[in-house]
Amino acid sequence: MVAELVDDVRRYLAEGELPATAAHVAEAILASGEIPGDAAVGRMVTELQSELVGAGPLEPLMHDPLVSDVLVNGPHSVWADRGGGLEELAISFRDEQSVRRLAQRLASLAGRRLDDASPYVDARLPDGARLHAIVPPLSSVGTCISIRVPRKRDFTLPELVEARAMPATAIPWFEAIISSKCAYLISGGTGTGKTTLLSALLATIPRNERILIVEDSGELNPDHDHVVRLESRPPNVEGQGKIELRDLLRQALRMRPDRIVVGEVRGAEVVDLLAALNTGHEGGCGTVHANSAEDVPARLEALALAAGLGREALHAQVNAGIDAVIHLNRIRSGRRRIAGINVLRPVLGDGASTGVNESVPAVVFGEDEVKEGPGFEYLARRLGMTGQDKENAAAL
Questions:
Q1: pTM of the prediction?
Q2: Contact 214, 227 (CB under 8 A)
């Protein structure tokens, strides 16, 4: 399909103020002077609709149930993640202008601008996908598009076992965390599956409990009967109307929650979440970016200090409010896996607490087994395990 035909169709639809329906696109093709056969017309209609109102060459990826991320680095470099790490695809755009037009169209669908005055955009598309785009000269390789594709459905814990993300013997540990109403954080790097695991855990919460989810963009969609989702809002083109996670978290606390969930803790909302977990809101949870479970205390400290909460106060609230840290990573093959469960416990100095917490492995998940770590007894106490419970857990 030549670029001139796309331009002719676009011009025909614009002049007639016509929507890019299949009938109007076919009409525009015929009006251009091209007289292809019926099969060719049908094929061209599909391609042109994708070019004019869809995601262009990326359209098939947006409907692939295995794809979680789509990345475009200029017109001739397209990558996707189907669960095994990034792979370069034999997909390309005609030129830089084609990539830029697609980025601008996607941004407009989210009610945002993308031009020389606003050279980057971070927004949520109507289908729930997260869009980031940036244009030259900020990007030297051309227009870059990053799309986090929403999952068509959520995984269950047994399905995560089938996907080899964890051993089957890990499930009782997660069930114990949920049933005991422990507060926990899920940590990991970008694209390690934190949201996937969190959604699977939320689906196991008893059906008579009310879950309040606070997110920047709606990614969590647990299979549960009583879920209320609150989403933050960026400022409009005039710079007004911004609603932050902290604002929504405070509203959620007034909505009679049984479980408070923060989709991603990455700013000042950490202060309000910790306050909630220390004032009777059991079973709260969220995700946080961290390279390892051992880095979580330092990560929380950095977020809290930026929000004005001192180090001593932060560690006191962490010790009282957070019971466990579940960490995920990617192995060299690119496969996502749940590494294990850590506990946050005070660091001792001369037999007394130093007022600072450290993250200590409690259970470590191998390919087929669960191993005890130095924090096993500490986690067992947090989960309210009896002596027999601990023996059973150790025998898994």
A1: 0.77
A2: no
Report the CATH number of the 55-150 domain. Answer: 3.30.450.370
Which two tokens mark 101? Answer: 């037009």
Domain residues of the chain, as ranges? 1-53, 55-150, 157-394
Using CB atoms within 10 A of its CB, is residue 19 exposed (0-12), middle (13-18) or buried (19+)? exposed
DSSP-derived letter for residue 243 is B
Show the tokens assigned to 103.
Answer: 């980025």
Neighbours of 135 (CB within 10 A): 22
For 373-388, how does the pLDDT look when each residue is reduced to its tens digit (9 = 90+)?
A: 999 999 998 888 765 4
* Residue 262 contacts residue 311 (beta carbons within 8 Å): no
Pairwise CA distance, residues 139 & 14, whole Å: 30
Give the integer Cα–Cα distance in Å for 234 and 220.
Answer: 19
- Rounded to whole angstroms, what are the CA distances from 221 to 120, 128, 150, 226? 28, 11, 10, 11
Distance, in Å, from the CA atom of 340 to the CA atom of 296, rounded to the nearest integer, reads 14
Torsion angle, CA of 25/31/36/41, rounded to 10 degrees? Answer: 10
Cβ-contact 106, 52 below 8 angstroms: no
Q: pLDDT tens digits for 25-49?
A: 667 666 776 655 555 555 566 555 5
Cβ-contact 56, 1 below 8 angstroms = no
d(CA 336, CA 331): 7
Question: Looking at domain 157-394, which of 3.40.1550.10, 3.40.50.300, 3.40.50.720, 3.40.50.2000 is its CATH number?
Answer: 3.40.50.300
167 cis-preceded (ω within 30 degrees of 0)? no
How far CA 147 is from CA of 58, 59, 70, 124, 229, in Å, comes to 10, 12, 5, 9, 22
Fill in the DSSP letter of residue 2.
-
